UniProtKB/TrEMBL annotation:
Motif 'HIGH' region mapped to chain: 10-18
Subcellular location field: Cytoplasm
Motif ('KMSKS' region): 195-199
Subunit-level organization: Homodimer.
HAMAP family documented for this protein: Trp_tRNA_synth_B
Alphabetical list of SUPFAM superfamilies matching this protein: Nucleotidylyl transferase (SSF52374)
GO MF annotations in UniProt: tryptophan-tRNA ligase activity
Residues the entry annotates as binding ATP: Q9, P10, S11, G17, N18, G145, E146, D147, I186, K195, M196, S197, K198, S199
Superkingdom in the source lineage: Bacteria
Name the UniProt record assigns to this protein: Tryptophan--tRNA ligase
Catalytic activity: tRNA(Trp) + L-tryptophan + ATP = L-tryptophyl-tRNA(Trp) + AMP + diphosphate + H(+)
Record's function text: Catalyzes the attachment of tryptophan to tRNA(Trp).
Entry annotated with the keyword ATP-binding: yes
Lineage per the UniProt record: Bacteria, Pseudomonadati, Pseudomonadota, Alphaproteobacteria, Caulobacterales
Length: 333
């Protein structure tokens, strides 16, 4: 059986990259395949989170899920920490994954920076917990942005090694990342070589899901570009990272391909393209932002939705965990 699973960390404001790389896909998939979408609060505390802020941001992510069209009666929406099996399975996977595999993880290198010895141990084993998130549901498809590909490969390595070591071919499926489409790698609006991220100090580098129409329009207007008109071909576009990024955003927001967008705008300058992009961004994000605010006005409702989602997700994850414990040789499972 197919299952979709994904999650977002409540570690800062959601931005356009999260929306186009991940959220927008969740609501499209939920009607086709059983879908599990969680708020990765266990992952968030691998870096320090102010407790009150963590709680608020957890609800904000849930509000964004709902605002982007996830239906809590269709998909299971829940906080990772409310389904114990994630953390318990992660321990077992810590004993499957090899140090050499984790040593290669580029995200750890980026996030730990120059102070590796001061990073939490959790930050290091972060991808192992991610594998547990996915494999607890035997998920087959994982809609994520490009930056999560390496973590998905590690998940596949863990699944394959578990299946092999315990001689259970096919017990865990090898999940596929879903990174198709122009939204999978949205870059900073200030620098076409850096990805749009929560941690960029410049707020002008990203469009936040909480930005109002004026802020969105202004950020698009101020986005870095070159002076040339838009080219005819994707090859030429690929040589101009900032232009490529804006065309990609336009394509992802409108559900079109970059080639299709170029066909409309080739030969036109940014004086024409940017206002069109700003209008499109405001028209598509405005309703999401407004809906998100509406949900955030009722935290009790969000908490009830998350609790219900956890109650639906738990039996599935628990069943996998029970099988795993038995396979491993733990008695009483
Ligand atoms: P996180 O919280 O950093 O990001 C959430 C999702 O947004 C995508 N994303 C982007 N997509 C396109 N362009 C960008 N600039 C951009 N920035 C972020 C991410 O790829 C992600 O899909 N480790 C995950 C959370 C996680 C998870 C999981 C995901 C934990 N367990 C299990 C899938 C399955 C993360 O840190 O995402």
């Amino acid at each position: 059986p197919q299952r979709v699973l994904s999650g977002v960390q409540p570690s800062g404001a959601l931005h356009l990259g999260n929306y186009l790389g991940a959220l927008i896909k969740f609501s499209r998939l939920q009607h086709e395949i059983p879908t599990f979408i969680f708020v990765a609060d266990l992952h968030a505390i691998t870096a320090w989170q102010e407790p009150a802020l963590l709680a608020a941001q957890t609800r904000e992510i849930a509000a964004a899920y709902l605002a982007s069209g996830l239906d809590p009666k269709v998909a299971a929406i829940f906080p990772q920490s409310q389904v114990r099996a994630h953390a318990e399975l992660a321990w077992i996977f810590n004993c499957v994954a090899r140090l050499g595999w984790l040593d290669r993880m580029t995200q750890f290198k980026e996030k730990s920076g120059k102070h590796k010895e001061r990073s939490s141990v959790g930050l290091y084993t972060y991808p192992v917990l991610q594998a547990a998130d996915i494999l607890a549901y035997k998920a087959t498809q994982v809609p994520v942005g490009e930056d999560q590909r390496q973590h998905l490969e590690l998940t596949r390595d863990i699944a394959a090694k578990f299946n092999h070591d315990y001689d259970r071919p096919g017990f865990f499926p090898l999940p596929e990342p879903m990174t198709q489409g122009p939204g999978a790698r949205i870059m900073s609006l200030r620098d076409g070589s850096a990805k749009m991220s929560k941690s960029d100090p410049s707020d002008y580098s990203r469009i936040n899901l909480t930005d109002d129409a004026d802020a969105i329009a202004q950020k698009v207007r101020k986005a870095r570009t070159d002076p040339e008109p838009l080219p005819e071909t994707l090859d030429e576009l690929a040589k101009r990272p900032e232009a490529d990024n804006l065309v990609g955003i336009f394509a992802a927001l409108s559900g079109r391909t970059k080639a299709d967008v170029l066909a409309e705008f080739a030969g036109k300058g940014f004086g024409t393209f940017k206002p069109a992009l700003a209008d499109l961004a405001v028209a598509s994000l405005g309703p999401v932002t407004a809906a998100m605010r509406g949900f955030m006005d009722d935290p009790a409702q969000i908490d009830a939705i998350l609790k219900d989602g956890a109650e639906r997700a738990s039996p599935i994850a628990e069943a996998t965990l029970a099988e795993v414990k038995k396979i491993v040789g733990f008695i009483g499972a």
